[in-house]
Specification:
By secondary structure, the chain is an alpha+beta fold. Helices cover about 25% and strands about 35% of the residues. It has helices spanning about 40-50, 55-65, 115, 145-160; strands at about 10-15, 20, 25, 35, 75-80, 85-90, 100-110, 125-130, 135, 165-175, 175-185. Strands 9-8-7-6-10-11 form a six-stranded antiparallel β-sheet, covered by helices on one side. The longest helix is centred in the C-terminal third of the chain and has 18 residues, at about 145-160. The radius of gyration is 18 Å and the shape is globular. The two termini are about 35 Å apart.
Length: about 180
Amino acid sequence: AGRLQPGRKYAVRSSGAKEDLESLSFAGQYHSFLNVMGIEEIQIAILACYKSMYADASLTYLVTNQVNVHGLEMAVIVQEMVNSDRRGIAFTINPLTGNDKEIVVEIAEGLGDHIVSGKVNPENYSYHWFDDKFDCSKENKLLSPAELKVLMDTLLEIQMFFGYPCDIEFAYEAGKLYILQARPI
C-alpha cells in the first residue's frame, strides 16, 4: 500500500501458473482489471482475480483440455496504468503462416482490451526482419516509420532475450513505448 500513489490508476492483472502452458494458451480465462483507483478497489480487484481461477468458465476450460485442476496457483500483479493513446499486440513469428522471420503487429487507439474484444478494427503491420521489409496498408496512421522501426527492434530483442517466439503486449503513452507483457506463443 505504501507504493500506491493517491489519484493514480492501476491495472490489477492475473497471472496463473497454468495460464501459458507450452501446448495450451489459457490467456483471457482469468480476470484482470484496468483503471482501478485506491487501496480498497485494488483489494477488491485482487480478490476477484483469485476468484476467477475457480469460475465455471476457467474450470471447464481446464477439464476440457485435460489440465490437472489440482494445485492451481496465481500471482496478481498491480502495476501503474499506462494511460495509452495506442496499444497493441505483437507476435514475433507469424501465427497464421508460421513464418519465423516475420513479426506481426496489431495496434489500435486506446486500451488493448478493445482489440482483444473485437470492439475496434486494429491497424496491421508486418516486418520481415531477414529481408528488412515492412508491410502495411497505406491508410495506416498509428505508427510513424521511426516508431515502427524502434518497435520491431524491441520485439526482436525480447524474442532473443527469451530464446523463443513471443506474444507481446505493448502501449504508447505520449509517444513513449511501454512493454506490458511478454509470453510464449
